Amino acid sequence: MKVERNKWQNNFSEWYNELIETAGIQDKRYPVKGMNIWLPYGLRIMRNIEKFIHEEMERTGHQEVLFPALIPETEFQKEAEHIAGFEGEVFWVTHAGHDPLDVRLILRPTSETAMYSMFALWIRSHADLPFKIYQIVNVYRYETKHTRPLIRVREISRFFEAHTAHDSFEDAERQIKEDLEIFDNLAKKLALPYIVSKRPEWDKFPGAYYSLGAEVVMPDGRTLQIGTMHNYKQNFAKAYNIMYEKEDGTHEYVHQTTYGMSERLLAAVIAVHGDDRGMVLPPTIAPIQVVIVPIPKKDSPYDVFAYAREIAEELKTAGIRVHVDERDIRPGRKFYDWELKGVPLRIEVGPRDVEGQKAVLARRDTLEKFTVERAELIEKVRETLDAIMDNLYARAKEFLDSHIKRVDTLEEAKEVFEDRRGVVEIPWCGEESCGLEMEEILDAKMLGIPYPEEEAKIEGKKCAHCGKDAKFIARFARTY
Amino acid sequence: MKVERNKWQNNFSEWYNELIETAGIQDKRYPVKGMNIWLPYGLRIMRNIEKFIHEEMERTGHQEVLFPALIPETEFQKEAEHIAGFEGEVFWVTHAGHDPLDVRLILRPTSETAMYSMFALWIRSHADLPFKIYQIVNVYRYETKHTRPLIRVREISRFFEAHTAHDSFEDAERQIKEDLEIFDNLAKKLALPYIVSKRPEWDKFPGAYYSLGAEVVMPDGRTLQIGTMHNYKQNFAKAYNIMYEKEDGTHEYVHQTTYGMSERLLAAVIAVHGDDRGMVLPPTIAPIQVVIVPIPKKDSPYDVFAYAREIAEELKTAGIRVHVDERDIRPGRKFYDWELKGVPLRIEVGPRDVEGQKAVLARRDTLEKFTVERAELIEKVRETLDAIMDNLYARAKEFLDSHIKRVDTLEEAKEVFEDRRGVVEIPWCGEESCGLEMEEILDAKMLGIPYPEEEAKIEGKKCAHCGKDAKFIARFARTY
């Protein structure tokens, strides 16, 4: 049987919107635009993703905190550039009970302005640095663009943000490297290949010295940002007066970084690995890694249900997340359900399997079926789950690579965007005016230049727009 | 050494407020009244409590969901009694970006009105029942009373709410019994003895048919509600049109219940088990169950740090949460810190312990110290952690029992409230007017009647206020 990805690729938007609901990820019928309900199955996948995030945070010495979701207008307004970047899209709490509030509150769009006056109280000396905290919380943005579950929403309900403070620019740079390493570990668990770009000046995070963004390429060729890291230098420290005492007794502003991710990680998993039958979950984060479907036959002397339960017990003991589907419906309907929900591996057992002490394994990613001996089951299941993980990554990597194209001219770039789309890499002089005009001409966004920057530098090429000597490779894409 | 509980009991409010900050539970300096910041240590304890909640929910077949935090005014107003109960204390989101919203949004004070129009879509037939979901989220109440961390706040950031739907009143009653069993399991993990009362009509949850509340007695004799269960009968089902098809094809409104808890569980743990030195955490939820303090001696040939690390490794392998305090400060200061933070067991190792292959164990609850053989360490640590658990419960139970007094007259009741306070049980005719007047006279709240109600019924007594035949025992207390 062939893996079909027609609808997935050619009608992605519809495919995605349907799947979110039919696979039990979110319900979009909640009566506030851009705010959706997490359904149990979707939430279990997201929790598994978050478990990896918590583990990485613990490994790297970040401490978990939880800040209030409301920020006083007065705090919010301390850093001018930051405010300007968010003011048009914040939700305002203006009344409580029957009365107007003395100081209006905003629902956090991100927590810099909530956290940093506390940083000023918490950080005293060089011994307190580096200071590393994180939280996973709900944040709010009054999106005026078309909303889409997990991707563009007005309540991001699983927003991860790490905030750090350092004694020097160099140490902040080391932190950004650590962030990228964390991201890489996480992406491996999700079998997601990605690219990292340094955002152009005109698209960095409000208040940042520079911003990095990690992107995946979606089935329709548009890119989705799933991780960002910002080096703030001392911008916020100066606005919020966050100073530390150096060893020599003098005082200095700290250097700061942040690192952000969200439920977009799940959107990327759904989109990148899916096919026309539904989701394909990496075994690492699948709530059910193996589903067992008993296929009874009338008049057979063998109890396939008992056999299924025995196998399930054995897999569970081996630490595998397993479920036996004992519903009173046809096996075909069960196959359909679990394929939609992306369960990586299905085990079918019929009377003949009981008799021969065998089981049939069906891979969700390749749709291949094969028979294994009962005695080798655990080993084969483990091997197959690993093989699925590897195949998901390899398939996604091939897709990503085939959607990154380096060109020399804007004409070639235009062709790419008309054809299979993806990311186009174009020689660029480095001037803002040229960059903005290329965005206009291509009707695409500049993601930035490849990061680390050494990979972005080129020689002997001309800027595709102005014709002057090009300094960098710039990436353009249609984005989510 | 004796466990001192003078300040704890006689100056509880000050004791508690200090401890919240010094033990690293929350920071109260966040610039919005009644909204506090969870610090890493406090959050780790709360997460451990939540782990037990998640386990109980899984055991009892509740599914986790996540609803948006904003509720449209129109949804909120569908159930008149519920609205009346909350309208004076909700936060209003009236603007987004630069514009007023068409429909104003409220920050959820609890989620009935957010959830139940979805229930109407999700629940179709008797086969969908019982329907059991829960979430742990932030909710908001514009408290006008004095706020207090974890106890009375404007953002409850760890609000647990389970919502269920049933095909009959009987099945809803079965759910309430399950809720009480869940609560009992959880309370055991927290070593918290408690009482359950059925709230009087005038104090039930807005929209409920009846409400149960579980209370602990705090060190100052006031009670703290730490769990509530409500049977809604069909009140909300009718307002939100939640119907199911019965086996005979007719349609009927569902019966509903809810179950609520919050970070007050942690407040109760801190308050009930503490002493003048700080917190005493039940080993079940302590982020660090055992702290090892090496006590080096100058010129000693023994490396106590290496010995401490070895012991730590052994404990860790045995599944015990352990930390070695290698800070370059005096042991006495370390003792002070970890006693404040409530680490259940301290292990001290000096050169003599290395030499004799021993270790000194110090219990946080009783402050007892004793020496054990290295070979028996794991066993002794496990035994001692169990003994601490038992002792915490026994001590708290004794305190609770000694603070519940049954009396016949209001004079006697008044004396109790003047003296050591706690819960007073008084014969009551069952009339609302009498109950309210007794609240007035005693300057106390009626918690309700003991639950299950069989325990509340009495005969041969007269109502302490009106003198008519008493039907119930009613509980009164000063409450948080």
UniProtKB/TrEMBL annotation, chains A, B:
Keywords per UniProt: Aminoacyl-tRNA synthetase, ATP-binding, Cytoplasm, Ligase, Nucleotide-binding, Protein biosynthesis
Gene Ontology MF annotations: ATP binding; proline-tRNA ligase activity
InterPro entries: aa-tRNA-synt_IIb (IPR002314), aa-tRNA-synth_II (IPR006195), aa-tRNA-synth_II/BPL/LPL (IPR045864), Anticodon-bd (IPR004154), Anticodon-bd_dom_sf (IPR036621), Pro-tRNA-ligase_IIa (IPR002316), Pro-tRNA-ligase_IIa_arc-type (IPR004499), Pro-tRNA_ligase_II_C (IPR016061)
Family matches, as PROSITE patterns: AA_TRNA_LIGASE_II
Protein's UniProt keywords contain Nucleotide-binding: yes
EC nos: 6.1.1.15
BP term (GO), one: prolyl-tRNA aminoacylation
Catalytic activity from the UniProt record: tRNA(Pro) + L-proline + ATP = L-prolyl-tRNA(Pro) + AMP + diphosphate
Residue stretches making up the Aminoacyl-transfer RNA synthetases class-II family profile domain: 40-282
Enzyme class: ligase
Entry GO CC: aminoacyl-tRNA synthetase multienzyme complex; cytoplasm
Compartments, record wording: Cytoplasm
Main location: cytoplasm
NCBIfam families: proS_fam_I
Family: Belongs to the class-II aminoacyl-tRNA synthetase family. ProS type 3 subfamily.
Subunit (UniProt): Homodimer.
Function: Catalyzes the attachment of proline to tRNA(Pro) in a two-step reaction: proline is first activated by ATP to form Pro-AMP and then transferred to the acceptor end of tRNA(Pro).
UniProt comment concerning the protein's domains: Consists of three domains: the N-terminal catalytic domain, the anticodon-binding domain and the C-terminal extension.
Name of the featured protein: Proline--tRNA ligase
